[in-house]
Amino acid sequence: MRLLLNWFLSAVALLVVAHVVQGFHVSGFIAALIAAVVIGFVNATLGLALKLITLPLTLITLGVFWFVINALMLLVASALVPGFEVRGFIPAFLGAIVLALVNAVFRLIAGTASGGNGR
């Protein structure tokens, strides 16, 4: 149930980002759901490898470089998902920042943030 809630919240977060960041477009909720799955898969595979490889750079930049990696993952996902479009690196970078903030707020409100009591 928690996985489904996180998936739903990620899709809603993508829709919020699409309304806030110019150059970031989601055609509808179904596209947002599919994009959330693809973004999760890309982050778990390619994103994880890139984050491990670029760990020294991430440490030097105090974590800011992770937003660059996440922006690249958004661009990859936008190339794979019809109805999900990110028009360039700047919208992807801004989208990565806003997406991280919105996801954090949603998970805090929903009580699904990591480090909880396990319920």
In the residues, how many domains can be counted?
Answer: 1
Strand tally, please?
2
Low-confidence parts? none
Record the strand order, biggest sheet.
Answer: 1-2
Q: Major sheet, described briefly?
A: 2 strands, antiparallel
Helices and strands: which structural class?
A: mainly alpha
- Determine Rg (CA atoms, Å): 14 Å
* Overall helicity: over 70%
Strand content: 5-15%
H/E topology pattern: HEHHHEH
Topology (elements, then pairings):
Blueprint: H1 2-20, E1 24-26, H2 29-53, H3 55-60, H4 65-80, E2 84-86, H5 89-110
Antiparallel strand pairs: 1-2
Compose a concise summary of this entry.
The protein has helices spanning 2-20, 29-53, 55-60, 65-80, 89-110; strands spanning 24-26, 84-86.
Descriptive report:
The structure is a single chain. By secondary structure, the chain is mostly helical. It has one domain. 74% of the residues lie in helices and 5% in strands. It has five helices and two strands. Strands 1-2 form a two-stranded antiparallel sheet. The chain is globular and about 35 Å long. The termini are close together. The relative contact order is 0.18. The mean pLDDT is 90.
Q: How would you describe this structure in keywords?
A:
5 helices, 119 residues, mainly alpha, two-stranded antiparallel ribbon
